[in-house]
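Spend some time on this chain, tokens included, and walk me through the fold:

. . .
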Amino acid sequence: MLRRNNIAFEREKYYSAMEGRSFLAPLPAEFTASEVGPGVRSMVLVLHHACGVTQPKLQAFLESTGIQISSGEISNLLRRNLEQFHQEKTELFDAG
């Protein structure tokens, strides 16, 4: 079962009069890679790579569950910030 889990982040913001600029606390690392959270990201990766679901079908599925996402964002989820997977693949290959 899928359910929406919107998260509102409250980040500290400070103004430095000495430096003449503001500082904004960063988001948690798992939420900086895309517009969606890590749960949606992992689901998209599994459905596409393990189940062979095409990008248009992914978009239709996500939108049918109430997740508004563009085809460009789906493409970004499938192509960007995948270094950890490549590293794991290399480690598995090296281990034999």
Notes: The mean pLDDT is 85. The helical segments are 38-49, 55-64, 71-79, 83-95.
